## 1
Amino acid sequence: QVQLVESGGGLVQAGGSLRLSCTASGRTFSNYNMGWYRQAPGKEREFVATISRSGLTTDYADSVKGRFTISRDKSKNTVYLQMNSLKPENTAIYYCRAGPPGIYWGQGTQVTVSS
């Protein structure tokens, strides 16, 4: 089992920045690909970004490319999502995901971007 705890969400004005954190415990952090997903009200959960076990490979949804950056710190068992130039349509609950192997989810952190 992997336990994931997200933090860093909040209320920000359009154009602002936030950095989300997700700290993992329970298994070896470096064994897992890590990712961020989000779910806006009335919509399905969607992919935002992912980072490989080594941290050398990243991938982003087209809508966030150039504005969001995913990174990981093995010494802290933590993955980050730096979000810049935020837009109101980025308002959602942001979830951290570990895996494969297996799939594990955090409880989510709310991000609200006001216009």
## 2
Amino acid sequence: QVRLVESGGGSLQAGGSLRLSCAASGDSYRRACMAWFRQAPGKSREGVARIASDGSAAFADSVKGRFTISQDNAKNTLHLQMNNLKPDDTATYYCSAAYGYVCYSVSWSSATSYQHWGQGTQVTVSS
């Protein structure tokens, strides 16, 4: 079982930066595919970034070059560093975990591939 708790959301102006954190518990977390998703009002949940147990990362085209994902195994924490934020980045951001193989498949960005979810943290970017 994996338990996930996000933190770090907030409101800021476009061009700013924000760092989200996700505290994970459960030994299986270390072998999991970890990802950040987001969901804006009226839209479906979309994959933003994922990181595999080997440290390899992948990003949605909309955030490439602006967001980075990292994992601190010593602290059981997942991070999402978001730079040059835009109003379109406004959404509730979720931390998620799936079986490790998901990270190496095209379905890594599909919410249905993930079994564990945090409660979400709100990010609001104003123009």
## 3
Amino acid sequence: QVQLAESGGGSVHTGGSLKLSCVVSGLPFADYCLRWIRQALGKEREGVATVDGYGEPSYSDSSKGRFTASKDSGKNTFYLQLTDLRPEDTAMYYCAVDLEHGGAWSCSDVAVNAATYWGKGSPVTISS
């Protein structure tokens, strides 16, 4: 059974930082595309970052320069460091394993907001 266990959400003021974690278990292979996708209340899902099978991150225009995605292969754990947070970053943040769009080695299309397996989400709230 594939599971994605998320942690690290919270509430901070504008300019603050948070670090999200996502532990992936149950997959019979180690290399896959991991997506970070957020959804604000009343809005569509938005991809903010990906990490491919090499551990190489890609970012959306809204996250570039402020968010850092990384992978600890030994722990099957992915991280999303959020810095310089703004009220418009308020959303539920999901990590998701994508086995359908591009594969483990071609994961740079951050705009894809669909995936195969999803975590339950981490709430991030930014107050001004």
